[in-house]
Amino acid sequence: MARTLARTVRPALVIEARSRRKGALWPYLLVAPALAGFACLLVYPLARSVVISFQHFRLGELIRGGADFAGLANYAEALGGPEFWAVVRRTFLWTAANVVLIMVISTAVALMLPHLGRRMRLAVMSGMVLTWATPVLAATTIFQWLFQSRLGVVNWLLVRLGFDSFRDYTWFADGGATFAILVALVVWQSVPFAALTLYAGLTTIPGELYEAARIDGAGPWQVFGRVTFPILRPLFGLITSLEVIWVFTCFAQIWAISKGGPGGATATLPVYAFQIAQSLHRYDLGSAVSTLTVLMLLAVLVVHLRRMFREEAA
């Protein structure tokens, strides 16, 4: 009897163990294509850029192949030039201006949406989705048309309002004006994602918490500071981190409108690295600047995330 029971139970246990092994491997098989794409599109180019940054790699090496080891010479050249640090300061100013405006406007829009009627809320959300779905170069072209010197809508409207000094005003010839236009473009493209994400988070907060806060006499600012923000703090931290990454590495909008000009007034680190590699054919120095850009971005994100986790733990 015992032998018969053992013969019956043992195959069942073997089958169950095999099914568990297959079940354990199945999640890894599902994420394998994504990991392979990540390795090909991100990891390999980044590793290749780091390798080139330690080599003497210019147009001749690109054609012939092979490159001599240069050690830290490219990093020393980049860090030793005043132009690099001017670009670094401009990049941090660019990132701070965009992220602050994006988060403030997105929070205001997200808080406004629940107070709108159903049709108006649907219209506003549809408009934001369409804005978010607009291709980068298409949106950039629209902004170029808006601020065109002679046929642009902005100049026409300002002149109609009585500001005759803006007649035929060339916005993209002034560094400060070009910088402001690029900030407006990036904010316009980024607000929909952040606002809709925050609005989705707002819908998860129980209404009883707001009612209790109002009964206790809390005003709108107190309700936001004591109810809304503490609950959505992780979501605010996540969106801020994503916006820092996207803004810090922004390239297409700047290159399409100004190519870093006029006079380098809109050249951020990604644009500066591309200028070095494309114009001077200094692929080694451009790779060094790109690597430094990644390291700076990681340092900013690490500080931000550590602070966010400390506040959550407290």
TrEMBL record:
Its main location: membrane. It comes from the Bacteria. CDD domains: TM_PBP2. It is found in: Cell membrane. InterPro entries: MetI-like (IPR000515), MetI-like_sf (IPR035906), UgpAE/MalFG_permease (IPR050809). It is a multi-pass membrane protein. The chain crosses the membrane at residues 25-47, 92-113, 122-147, 235-256, 285-305. Keywords: Cell membrane, Membrane, Transmembrane, Transmembrane helix, Transport. Residues 88-304 form the ABC transmembrane type-1 domain. Belongs to the binding-protein-dependent transport system permease family. This is Sugar ABC transporter permease. It comes from Microbispora siamensis. The lineage of its organism: Bacteria, Bacillati, Actinomycetota, Actinomycetes, Streptosporangiales.
